[in-house]
Known about the structure:
Blueprint: E1 17-29, E2 35-41, E3 44-50, E4 61-70, E5 85-96, H1 113-118, H2 120-123, H3 127-149, E6 153-154, E7 171-174, E8 182-185, H4 190-198, E9 203-211, E10 223-232, H5 236-255, E11 264-266, H6 267-274, E12 288-289, E13 306-312, H7 320-332, E14 339-344, E15 353-354, E16 360-362, H8 371-381, E17 388-394, H9 396-411, E18 422-426, E19 431-434, E20 440-442, E21 469-474, E22 477-484, H10 489-499, H11 503-517, E23 524-530, H12 531-539, H13 569-574
Parallel strand pairs: 6-9, 11-18
Antiparallel strand pairs: 1-2, 1-4, 2-3, 4-5, 7-8, 9-10, 10-23, 12-13, 13-17, 14-16, 14-17, 15-16, 18-21, 19-20, 21-22, 22-23
Helix pairs in contact: 3-5, 3-12, 6-9, 10-11
The structure holds one RNA strand.
Amino acid sequence: MRTHLCGALRSGDIGAAVTVCGWVAKRREHGEHLAFIDLRDHTGIVQCVIPGTVDVRSEYVIAVHGVVRARPDGTVNPDLPTGEVEIGDCTVTLLNSAEPPPFAVDDRVEVDEVIRLRHRYVDLRRPRMQANLRIRAKVNHALRTAMDRQGFVEVETPLLWAPTPEGAREFTVPSRLHPGSCYVLPQSPQLAKQLLMVAGVDRYYQIARCLRDEDLRADRQFEFSQLDVEASFVSQEDVFEFVSEAVLDAAEAVTGDRPGAVPRMIWAEAIDRYGTDKPDIRFGMELIDLSTVFEGTAVKAFGAPCVKAIVLEGGATLTRSKLDGLTDRAKGLGAKGLAWFRVTEPEAADGAGATGSGLALDSPLDRFLSDPERSGLLAATGAGAGDLILVVADEYRTACTVLGQLRVDVGGRPVGEGPYCYLWVVDFPMFDGVDEAGHPIAAHHPFTMPHPDDLDRLESEPAAVRSQAYDLVLNGWELGSGSVRIHRADIQSRVFAVLGVGEEEAMSRFGFLLGAFRFGAPPHAGFAVGIDRLTAIFAGEGSIREVIAFPKTQSGSDPMTGAPKPLATGLLGELGLQLIPPRD
RNA sequence: GGACCUGUGGUGCAGUUUGGAGUGCACGCCGGCCUGUCAAGCCGGAGGUCGCGGGUUCAAAUCCCGUCAGGUCCGCCA
């Protein structure tokens, strides 16, 4: 039907008789003797010249036949990749007419997202969305190729799985053949891939769809895709190698540049320096410890186990209302408050306290500080005139995480801004917090192998036990996580015991897995990479919805299909279900 | 479960603080003109439940209460 793609025509094609197909992006008529049509397909736009009139409207689907020629002097369009040429003496074949689109198929207008989603097929015609879909395809292809090259076998695992109550809420699928019983959709193929290791697959991967019935966010949808990986007879080091290879390949496939080797940071250091387990190491603004500066301070607000700060260069210009907003944010994140200090030249700040360093502090708290505290604060932070110091005093963990979040809020780089800084975060704690019964809660999942050096402290000092769990981080986004798994029944029993999971409960929840492990489970380890997030970062998009063809809104609905919808009562009966009217 | 922000012709906005006739801008749409435009230009025209409901008021897009939808975030996401 066509001989060329619209966006591919160049001066090298001059003289060629071509037929191109696509949608009318723009029509410009100049009377009865001349008209222009900008024709768009997924590759771009080319100008077609019609020697007469033409009866087409925006988004009509047409085929255009003509001869490629150089544009006349002075009419070259440098904004268009095809701008040096045009298709001349065109004849137009109408393939389909179209109603005016609900919004312009144009990257230059920001259209309300609900309207975009309601007419997603129109939205996806926009060059930006076409590019995003194709970036995603490139990422998938690069990941598949890398895993295949490294000897991994792609195996598909079931979507209809058994309920294994764990962390995330699962989507439930009622069974017609077994009324009253249900399948669930897997929150990840975690158990299936471990079974494949027992099955001797040795190296498994899959681009797996995962489903979690949890609240949505810019970086979270009900359904998302993972590069899911598991390998036998491997260490954590081997996993890093496999996965690094794949994600570096993906970066190279999309950007043309291959980032350097992926550095590592131990979890405790990430918390201490960046206040998060997913540090964005594209920029500094690291957390500064002020605990010694304010040891024994008379300032009530700083009487806490930990006092930490970040410095925003040039931040002294932030308005009072902006600072109040940051204080609210800090409180919302769990801090008792937020102290701020504008660093100024002494004459600039009326009544500001002297520091002996040629600088002054402008802050409601300044008058409560002693001189040594003022100079200590400036010396420790290294702040200069015009900078802003933000201080949180609290329990260690709270002070770190609150400042870690403020660091990103106030100093964060745009999502697409290079370079691509991958980071392995290692030595996660085995447990994080305790449940109502006082049992530690697994930080990763209960099949995670404890760190060998900490194994003897599992029962005596669980909070101090590190695990062989690790995360991959890219520019402040958690891309995925994995671990070395427990393959020995004795260690698994000890972990379950610490978690407060009894023998009986373990068998009822994971019996099929534990059963399988009795038949020769190899040591194994694995990982999963979030493909939606990886693609969003490469595409420079702050929301994964922009790299998903048909995403849901934050409340989990689809403006195009109307899902979710009430089920016909007949169908309910067939499934042995009955609706309970909502309370109130 | 909670906090904040948004909702005005098809699209994007202004108008809301300080109540006074659906007033305005840009794009799009419809008709006409136009032989080198390219986000074409010129002339004319159509198009509105100011998200929805209630309240205050002589009078509500504007103030108050509620509600719905969307977004960002907290909780949640082993």
